[in-house]
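Lecture 7 notes: from sequence to structure.
We start with the chain below.
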Amino acid sequence: MKRIVLATAALAACSSHHSSATDDGGGGVPDTNITSTAPTDPVKDAAAKMIDEGRHTFRYDTFGDEAFWGGTLRLHEAVATLSPKAALGLGLKVDVDALPGDVVAGVKNGSISLDDPKTTLALLQANAVVGVTGFVDNGKLTSIGIQCALCHSTVDDSVAPGLGHRLDGWPNRDLDVGQIIAAAPDLSSIAQLLDTDQDTVRTVLKSWGPGKFDAELILDGKAMRPDGKPAATLIPPAFGLQGVNLHTWTGWGSIPYWNAFVAVLEMHGKGTFFDPRLDDAQKFPIAAKNHFGHVTTDDDRVTEKLPALHAYQLALRAPAPPAGSFDADAAERGDQLFGGKAKCTRCHTDELYTEPGWDLHRGAEVGVDDFQAMRSPDGMYRTSPLHGLWAHQKGGFFHDGRFATLADVVAHYDQLFTLGLTANEQHDLVEYLKSL
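Predicted structure tokens for the same chain:
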């Protein structure tokens, strides 16, 4: 334990030193005799600055939500008892780039215990737990806040499962959000909102499972689908949204709209949010009763950060599939099928892989029930962009993961639209989807 704390302190001192020194890009003394003649581009400079600011917001900004997670729910009390091994088991991730090299080595060789809650505290002090900020006073965890990265980042597992370099924009399909929230000592505020008791709230939260979250629960109170299964939906990727009109499974709005929605209503940050559609007491009884479409505050920590956050998300390209992860020859044949016999481009337009403009469809148009769609203002499902599909296969496909594999998705559409695809053609189409 002493080792990780000392290493963390050394890291902080090192960061402070470098931040106060003149940066020549190489770590040495800058040559003042060299004069740059390269022209500057104010547009690119402004874009780069916004991306940097947006990355910081995405990774580290709580928007003041610790007042809810720590102050109201007292979630930090549960986190303080978690060992790193238990936290990793809940899907939380550790950014090794936030740790000193000897700490990483200690994790690898086992000299630093992952069974000790004190190590969890040290990781939080190092700001190494992805999407989580721990507030520590005199060696005690006193509060906790969350960031966008909690759900929409993971790591590459380069050191160990759950420990590695950040992968921003990737959906954390290991994260059991419901189990984590259910561990909070005081859920009375949520129970009161939903007009139920804390035990019922915990039962619902624990039903979600890894990689899922129910953003509409605090709007309409519908915990279960008509078939009796949990109403939570898969955490979607935040990468590959360039040129995409609407952000979520069921539309709702643009990227900055949803960022404001989540920051204020779901993360419980201090900000302003406006959407009079939530005044519909029949569709959104809880939201209407609590005026969730008209949230204002004198201490707005969200609104001014939305432009840069938007810019950063648009800079998150979908990751290219690893070499050898798909059959290239089959994918080439699948490409021809995609725009031909399979008729996929009717909705997933080439290059963009969703529809330019209004990209919403009724449930019947895609062969699924409309339960989740009707929980949104427009009552439709978005045509999801397909870039980077290979990176979020865990948990299944469609909004609720009802199709376990891409092969199941292709078979569904083959039957729905009577495409007449042979088994080999379906295979080729799957390989093409894996190549995007």
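Points to note: The chain has 19 helices and twelve strands. The longest strand covers residues 140-146.
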